[in-house]
């Protein structure tokens, strides 16, 4: 894979350097948008990504406010963001991307991935959630007006959840692999708002054109590192009334936890296999995560391309699948909210 990337990089440009990034396994990615007048720093929003670090930030859904992080960790990120903005003497907007390992522990590890002294793609989302025109406020700060002069001081923490979801063009490109990774594939974004994270998430899926089923059969096949996390996802699906089928390795783990699941062949194990079931319309939802190895990715590619061709909803990360279960729990109690009324309830 490295050889392929190097060859392609040389084809594109003979002179430009190649950037190598180190991956952090099992890390939550967080975006923080802030603005500063050179002295005062205002935190616009803290957004927790749903997909783990390693998936391009533009392809990952995110929630404002964070849906799973402890409050002390959120405050730590705010303090670190403000300290960096002051140290860098930023006037205007700044975005920081953090990665957090062991986020549920007493002493989580916080890594700074990027610090960008500019507006990020999340600024329009944060502005719509909080009702504050961050770009306009930042432009005035750059022109010499302090945040105090603009009556900007109290941070806005909405009492509702907002989820930003990426929109992908996969339907326009039959045969493309929908597996998410460090290369950005999305071409747009949508937003969902709800009183709970689940409600906001399912609305974001509807806006992005992803239909979550209310009943039927779910196929689960996950990599070894995701098998324990898949237990909670599978249990949630059973509670919602879904029938489960899985490949042998995943089924063994689920059955050991008392979860009813039927076994289906992988493509290379012979027919009837999972691709046949998808083509026959027997599968309503697919959860498929793969090892980061070329042979594992190629072996399961036919599953993902077939789901795309058959318009079957698929999740390629266990975090996305877990959020989908939360969303399906909220599907029967969706409500409609006017942004103007939500903004009126906020204290600026």
CATH architecture of the largest domain: 2-Layer Sandwich
**Can you tell me the CATH class of the largest domain?**
Alpha Beta
Structural class: alpha/beta
Shape: globular
How helical, in percent, are the residues? 25-40%
End-to-end Cα distance, whole Å, is 50 Å
Domains (count): 2
Strand ordering within the main sheet: 5-4-1-2-3-6-7
Q: Helical element count?
A: 11
If you average the pLDDT, what whole number results? 90
CATH fourth-tier homologous superfamily of the largest domain? ATP-grasp fold, B domain
In short:
The protein has about 350 residues and is α/β, with parallel strands linked by helices.
Give a structural overview.
- The protein is an alpha/beta fold and about 350 residues long.
- The protein has two domains: about 25-210 and about 330-348, ATP-grasp fold, B domain (D-amino Acid Aminotransferase, Chain A, domain 1, 2-Layer Sandwich), CATH 3.30.470.20; about 210-315, Rossmann fold, CATH 3.40.50.1380.
- It has helices spanning about 1-10, 70-85, 125-130, 135-140, 195-205, 225-240, 250-255, 275-280, 295-310, 320-330, 340-345, and strands at about 25-35, 40-50, 60-65, 90-100, 110-115, 160-165, 190-195, 215-220, 245, 260-265, 285-290, 315.
- Strands 5-4-1-2-3-6-7 form a seven-stranded antiparallel sheet. Strands 10-9-8-11-12 form a five-stranded parallel sheet, with helices on both faces.
- The longest helix has 17 residues, at about 70-85.
- The chain is globular, with a radius of gyration of 22 Å.
- The mean pLDDT is about 90.
């Amino acid at each position: 894979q490295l050889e392929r990337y190097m060859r392609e990089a040389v084809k594109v440009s003979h002179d430009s350097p190649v950037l190598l990034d180190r991956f952090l396994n099992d890390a939550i990615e967080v975006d923080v948008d802030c603005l500063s007048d050179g002295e005062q720093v205002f935190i616009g929003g803290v957004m927790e990504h749903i997909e783990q670090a390693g998936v391009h930030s533009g392809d990952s859904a995110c929630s404002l406010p964070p849906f799973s992080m402890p409050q002390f960790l959120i405050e730590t990120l705010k303090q670190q963001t403000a300290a960096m903005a002051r140290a860098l003497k930023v006037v205007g907007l700044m975005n920081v991307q953090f990665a957090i390992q062991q986020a549920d522990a007493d002493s989580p590890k916080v890594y700074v991935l990027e610090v960008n002294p500019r507006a990020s793609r999340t600024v329009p989302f944060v502005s719509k959630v909080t009702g504050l025109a961050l770009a306009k406020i930042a432009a005035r700060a750059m022109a010499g007006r302090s945040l105090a002069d603009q009556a900007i001081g109290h941070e806005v923490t909405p009492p509702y959840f907002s989820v930003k979801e990426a929109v992908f063009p996969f339907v326009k490109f039959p045969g493309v692999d929908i597996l998410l990774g460090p290369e950005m594939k999305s071409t747009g974004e949508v937003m969902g708002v709800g009183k709970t994270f689940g409600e906001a998430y399912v609305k974001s899926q509807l806006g992005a054109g992803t239909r979550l089923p209310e009943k039927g059969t779910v196929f689960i096949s996950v990599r070894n590192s995701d098998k324990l996390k898949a237990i909670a996802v599978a249990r949630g699906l059973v509670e919602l009334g879904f029938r489960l089928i899985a490949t042998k390795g995943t089924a063994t783990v689920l059955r050991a936890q008392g979860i009813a699941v039927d076994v289906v062949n992988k493509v290379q194990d012979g027919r009837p296999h999972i691709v046949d079931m998808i083509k026959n319309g027997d599968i309503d939802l697919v959860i498929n995560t793969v090892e980061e190895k070329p042979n594992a990715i190629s072996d399961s590619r036919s599953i993902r391309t077939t789901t795309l061709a058959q318009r079957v909803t698929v999740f390629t990360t266990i975090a996305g699948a877990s959020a989908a279960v939360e969303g399906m729990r909220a599907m029967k109690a969706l409500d409609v909210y006017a942004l103007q009324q939500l903004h009126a309830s906020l204290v600026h």
